[in-house]
Write a structure and sequence with these properties.
With about 325 residues, this protein is of the alpha/beta class. The protein is about 45% helix and about 15% strand. It has two domains: about 5-195, Class I glutamine amidotransferase (GATase) domain (Rossmann fold, 3-Layer(aba) Sandwich), CATH 3.40.50.880; about 210-260 and about 260-325 and about 330-333, Homeodomain-like (Arc Repressor Mutant, subunit A), CATH 1.10.10. It comes from Lentzea flava.
């Protein structure tokens, strides 16, 4: 048994950009982490061609499964459609559409990265739902599939059994979000630390953030945020953070938003929710006590913000995450 099977659909031919987006879920779900969760996920590389081999510029990728195996997976990842689907309005390969429909009907969680959303859309899995893709392709997605509520401003959208993300690195944010859903915040945070990436970038964060290269490395901001994380149970304000950074509140606000894409108060709330998640997973402390230790104040406040941010109550979250189920139902919230 494992934490769940993940079928990664590999096209019969791909380029460097495709390899990057294929590599993200492969790295997250295909690298065992026995000290974090044992067993880990089981990754299946599912080829779309009869030779089950993807060929790239100067390399080949041998796959372990075919499209027929997708139906039996717990989670299915698709990050690709042929270029002519986007450029020439060609149809999405019917065998891919059929495989996604069958997998979804069989209870699988279906996930897309970037233009993979077009395959989910063609399968009818996004009708009446919110969805996203890379901002360069969302306008066309909305035009071709008017039943979808396309959001071009977010990193990813979680609709429970169907999830979509923007392109490139947003796929990593979505993968870590899935690990957080399946195995808890502590495991996701430790994995992110090993990958040297932020532990949690909320899906609602903008795809387009001004990340202009600063004149010098801003180590002071990192130090301030680390200082704040160690004091989440205290009544921190933007003035406290700005004072620690030796800048005005307005300057601190601008620098934090330019660097993280969020405001100081939103950043604090996100960190406090993550702290509450870890405490719910790892302790038997009361919700009231956890609310105080995470800096959210009262149990009612924690329930309100937790439900809004995570989608379930603190009590339900604790019940879901301890112990972690080791069966197909793991992939469902």
């Amino acid at each position: 048994m494992s934490a769940g099977s993940v079928a990664l659909i590999v096209p019969s031919d791909f380029g460097v950009a495709d390899l990057y987006e294929l590599g993200i879920p492969a790295a997250v779900f295909g690298t065992p982490q026995p000290d974090l969760a044992d067993p880990w996920y089981e990754l299946w590389l599912c080829g779309t061609g009869s030779d089950t081999r993807g060929a790239g510029p100067g390399f080949t990728l041998h796959t372990t499964h075919g499209l027929d195996d997708v139906v039996n997976a717990d989670t299915v990842f698709v990050s690709w459609v042929p270029e002519e689907v986007i450029e020439e309005n060609a149809p999405v390969p019917p065998e891919l559409v059929s495989a996604l429909r069958k997998a979804h009907d069989n209870g699988a969680r279906i996930v897309s990265q970037c233009v993979g959303a077009y395959a989910l859309a063609e399968a009818g899995l996004l009708d009446g739902r919110r969805a996203t893709a890379h901002w360069m392709h969302t306008a066309l997605l909305a035009e071709r599939y008017p039943k979808i509520h396309v959001d071009d401003s977010v990193l990813y959208v979680d609709e429970g059994d169907v999830l979509t993300s923007a392109g490139m690195t947003a796929g990593l944010d979505l993968c870590l979000h899935l690990v957080r859903r399946d195995l808890g915040a502590h495991v996701a945070n430790q994995l992110a630390r090993r990958m040297i990436v932020p532990g949690h970038r909320p899906g609602g964060r903008s795809q387009v953030v001004d990340l202009s290269v600063p004149a010098s490395d801003d180590q002071s901001l990192t130090a301030v945020l680390d200082w704040a994380r160690a004091r989440l149970d205290e009544p921190l304000t933007i003035e406290d953070l700005a004072r620690r950074a030796a800048v005005s509140p307005r300057t601190f606000y601008r620098r934090l938003q330019a660097t993280t894409g969020t405001t100081p108060l939103q950043w604090l709330l996100g960190e406090r929710i993550t702290r509450a998640q870890v405490l719910l997973e790892s302790t038997d402390l009361s919700v009231e006590k956890i609310a105080g230790l995470s800096g959210i104040g009262t149990a009612n406040n924690l329930r309100h913000h937790f439900l809004k941010q995570v989608g379930v109550s603190p009590s339900d979250y604790r019940q879901q995450k301890a112990p972690v189920p080791k069966h197909r139902g793991l992939s469902q919230q």
